[in-house]
Specification:
The complex is a heterodimer of chains A (about 400) and B (about 150). Chain A is built from 13 helices and 17 strands. Chain A is of the alpha/beta class and about 400 residues long. In chain A, the strands form five sheets. In chain A, strands 4-10-9-8-7-5-6 form a seven-stranded mixed beta sheet, sandwiched between helices. In chain A, strands 13-14-17-16 form a four-stranded antiparallel beta sheet, with helices on one face. In chain A, helix 7 links the parallel strand 8 and strand 9. In chain A, helix 3 packs parallel to helix 4. Chain B is α+β, with helices and mostly antiparallel strands. In chain B, the strands form two sheets. A three-stranded antiparallel beta sheet of chain B has the order 1-2-5, covered by helices on one side. Chain B has a two-stranded antiparallel ribbon with strand order 3-4. In chain B, helix 1 crosses helix 2, helix 2 runs parallel beside helix 4 and helix 3 packs antiparallel against helix 4. Chain B is globular, with a radius of gyration of 15 Å. At the A-B interface, helix 11 and helix 13 of A face helix 2 of B.
Chain lengths: ~400, ~150
């Protein structure tokens, strides 16, 4: 990877007297110096509100904010810039779709179809919508190797299905789902497809038109951008017929005592002062990722994963969840016999290694796998083979420690 | 490498309690006084059953899914409270809570549970140690309200 150590200043530190090895990028990624510089530049030199000032500073802020929208559009290959709406993140984007499109299109007896590998963010908003509208929430099963069971997908998506909402990449198993096939199943039944891209956009090239996703959502902070900024992509014809999720300033043209006229897309959805710095930071993150090339990013993570899997399989107490060949993003979830996930994570932390332990905000999947807690290591482009060697050595040492 | 820091909480005796927990048995519908507590940050779950007669805990057992710290804590707690009055037990719950927040004090009344004081060195794990005690506190409250 074309990464210089100085690109990620945070990684050059010691934690508990050990070199920091950060293996929790699926929770949030670290930020390159260029993103930090973009935030600093904006607040130091260009800070003003957008779309309202007629002075130079406001113009600069508006230009930078709207340029970020263009960058997102090109990064995910959306057809039009007005199909890119800025949100707080994936969670807010899914909630917007559920509470706008969902509330206006779901009727009693309709079905919403998700899968057992969804993050809570792609479960709970649909549960609530189903309750509000008297609809049924259905789950697509997983095959034995951890992938989506496409035969079951075909069965679950029926003429009653109005919304299908599926993650492109699992935040627990590293599986990448066949979105195009799922889109075809959904569209054959005249249902819309929302794709949760939180774990895919940071790690692979994305083309929302080629995927034929009706809605596509993701978060900035998992792809090297700041927290509090995310994206809702929607096909224009769909967005044009959905009421805004929130109302207020920025999203209106004229306001009278009892009514208001709304802006065109995309601003109709962006009520209030948006996260200007967040959008600019996200734009800088996209610039950085483009210098690495997303095809190369995906390839490099594959190398890390294969190396890590081989190393972990040599430790007999380790159980890895999901078959080897289905790990397509930089995520490995595992358990060690005799050592609970939290104890293992605490011990790794003592050696400077940051991993996630618990249910990973995917409790239905955990129940499906029959485990209460697991350890997850998730990689990104700044991780190295050395990181994996150090982690595997640490795991072996911890295994002996708990055998005492 | 330096795993010796872990000795502050994972002492041999604590690991023994975790690996061979006392009073661990399935909590079923037949158990009259019971409670389930869940730690949403990590997914740990514990169920306690606690028959009480004349303000005294006559027996107790627990089950659930938990790490070494929460399992050892539950195991030690149950050893301590069996055949005790509710008044004494409530006193111990308060003491334990004070101990794991790092307050200096006399914790002899907690017996083996004093071994868990080292959890203060691992702030992210304090909730693991307190989960069974928290469940016990809520269960006693429930019993007293009935």
């Amino acid at each position: 990877m074309k990464i210089k150590p100085s690109d990620f200043p945070i990684l050059a530190q010691q934690v508990n007297q050990h070199r920091l090895v950060y293996l929790d990028s699926a929770a949030t990624s670290q930020k390159p110096a260029s993103v930090l510089a973009a935030l600093n530049q904006y607040y130091t030199h260009d800070n003003a509100n957008v779309h309202r000032g007629i002075y130079d500073l406001s113009q600069r802020a508006t230009t930078a904010y709207e340029l970020a929208r263009d960058k997102v559009q090109h990064f995910i290959h959306a057809k039009r810039r007005e199909e890119i709406l800025f949100t707080r993140g994936t969670t807010e984007a899914i909630n917007w779709v559920a509470q706008t499109y969902g509330m206006t299109h779901i009727n009693p007896g309709d079905e919403i179809v998700i899968s057992y590998m969804e993050h809570h963010a792609n479960i709970v908003p649909w549960q609530q919508l189903a309750k509000q509208r008297g609809a049924t929430l259905k789950y697509i099963r997983l095959a034995a190797n951890g992938t989506l069971d496409m035969h079951d997908a075909d069965k679950q998506i029926t003429a009653r299905t109005k919304i299908v909402s599926i993650t492109q990449a699992s935040n627990v198993l590293g599986v990448v789902n066949p979105i195009k096939q799922i889109a075809a199943l959904a569209h054959a039944q005249h249902a819309v497809l929302l794709v949760d891209g939180a774990q895919s956009v940071p790690h692979m090239p994305i083309d929302v038109q080629q995927l034929d996703a009706d809605f596509f959502v993701f978060s900035g902070h998992k792809m090297m951008g700041p927290t509090g900024i995310g994206v809702l992509y929607g096909k224009r014809d769909l967005l044009a017929h959905i009421p805004p999720a929130q109302f207020g300033g920025e999203m209106v043209t004229t306001v009278s005592q009892n009514d208001a006229h709304f802006q065109p897309l995309p601003w109709r959805f962006e009520a209030g002062t948006p996260n200007i710095a967040g959008a600019i930071g996200l734009g800088a993150a996209i610039d950085y990722l483009l210098t690495l090339d997303m095809v190369e990013v995906a390839k490099y993570e594959q190398q890390l994963i294969q190396y890590a899997l081989e190393s972990l399989h040599k430790i007999d107490a380790i159980t890895v969840y999901g078959a080897d060949d289905v790990h397509q993003t930089g995520i490995i979830t595992f358990n060690m016999a005799g050592v609970h996930a939290h104890d293992l994570a605490t011990a790794l932390d003592q050696l400077g290694i940051a991993v996630r332990a618990g249910h990973h905000c995917a409790q239905p999947l955990m129940r499906y796998l029959g485990v209460a807690a697991t350890v997850r290591m998730s990689f990104y482009v700044y991780n190295t083979l050395d990181d994996i060697d150090d982690t595997v050595a640490a795991i072996k040492e911890i295994k002996d420690y708990f055998k005492k | 490498m330096t795993l010796h820091n872990l000795d502050q909480i994972y002492r041999q005796a604590v690991l023994d309690y975790a690996q061979h927990p006392h009073h661990k048995a399935p909590v079923t519908k037949a158990d009259s006084c019971q409670i389930e507590q869940y730690n949403p940050t990590c997914g740990d779950i514990i169920r306690l059953a606690l028959p009480v007669e004349h303000q005294t805990i006559v027996a107790c057992h627990f089950d659930g899914e938990g790490c070494a710290i929460s399992t050892a804590s539950a195991s030690i707690m149950m050893d301590l409270i069996i055949a005790q009055s509710l008044v004494t037990t409530k006193e111990q719950i308060k003491l334990f809570s004070r101990m794991v927040t790092g307050d200096d004090g006399d914790y002899k009344m907690l017996g083996d549970a004093q071994m868990l004081a080292g959890v203060t060195q691992f702030p992210a794990r304090v909730k693991c140690a307190t989960l069974p005690w928290h469940a016990l506190s809520l269960l006693i409250q429930q019993i007293e309200e009935e």
